[in-house]
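Z., the sequence and structure:
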Amino acid sequence: MAGRVWRFPFDDEIYTLTIIDRLSPLQLLTLYPARFDVHPPLSYLLFSALSHLGVGEAGMRLASLSLTALAVALFHLLTLMLLAERRRGDMRPASRLIAVVLFGLCPLAVSQGDALRWYPLFAALFAIFITLYLTAANDATRLWAAAALGLAGATNLLAAPVALALALHRYALEKRFAWRFDAAFWLIALASGGLGLYSAGGLIVARSAEIATQLGNGIARAALTDALGFFGGAALGVSQSWIVVPVLVVCALALAASLERTRVAAALHLLLLMLAAAALTILPGFAKPRSFLYLAPVMTLFVVLYLDALLRRGEVRGALAGLAMMTAASVAAIANVAHNTHPFKRNAVIPYQAILDFIDANATGRVLVATTDPVLPWLVNRRGHDGCGGELPAVRPCLAGGRTYDSLVIVRGYNDKSGNAAVLRRVDARVGELTAGRRKLASFAAGRDEDAALKSWLTGIALDPVILTVDVYR
């Protein structure tokens, strides 16, 4: 209903689709961790397997959404178990309804849960790990949690702070040392997380410079970006940040209320440590809130328990106010996921269908689409029409072999390479070469960011309110 699954891909999804097209499963296991991205390859192996089974993009997104739904469902179940324990099996329908509403309208799960990226799989594995570890009846069953933790490490290196939080809770708070179990647990985790260790080794030894590309946003900027993206579902823009302020207040109260000074080894403290460990990534400037999808149901768990506690104390108005503030922010975020003139992420609201329709209406014959946007070439080349799309400045392979085109479409806008002056000069030079001797026939402003001026003031980066400009030449 929010417009996910059956939609156009975004920039990082193009990377995923390109990787699984270019590399075989064997290469993903051996070559990829040593030479490519900062992320371990398990999620790419999943999408590659689905692709080889004939599953299309929408089907793969549905698979991702199912993994996110599994994560949310497991934490919903864990929440109900904790509520039943608190109320000795007697739960009010109001508390059940609060859980249904808040878990069902988890904004980050709706906006990012179907992504062809690593975070849905990571969220599911994290939820399986937590559920097995906290609810297992014996240590033998609990060892399966180690396998889930290891597989999470083979999906993303954020499993490291998860493991750190677990170690702190088990050995510092619980003071629980069972050497045979501990040895087996960590050996299983390391073995099942082998791809993560391989990737971390390749990253440190051969590609340490890539680590900086994930960090360095500054503590203040990273904290504000992560907070707005996490609580605003990566959908609400900077000027809409006031919407999440009440949510921050409710969540802060919920976390404070969950502290148990007389029971430092409480299970909830493990989840608090998970949140705290993730928050530490802000210190080096990690500003990618979608990466914390796995923690969205954790925060929801704390809020549900807090609102239930208010109901138990007879503070019905407080519980209703908290539920109303959380629900209003969730609905606002979900409503702005696909269409927002104040976007959190500019390229998440590009009207690709309108661009393609504009090209069809104004370009004739063989069409070359040269663009700074990484998604448009994928869309143009997949359509099967008499045209070719390429990313500036190279525009490969469209210009190979001296191929000529009747119409030229230049699509430009701010992107991740806009801060590189050398790249910009090459783009300008290539556009000059391509448009030489041609006449501009039509122009189209695709997408608006009404927060452009505010973002420019905050970041010092000059942004145009128009997200992409489409120019057609003959």
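The chain has a mean pLDDT of 91. The chain is about 60% helix and 5% strand.

Let me know what you think.
H.
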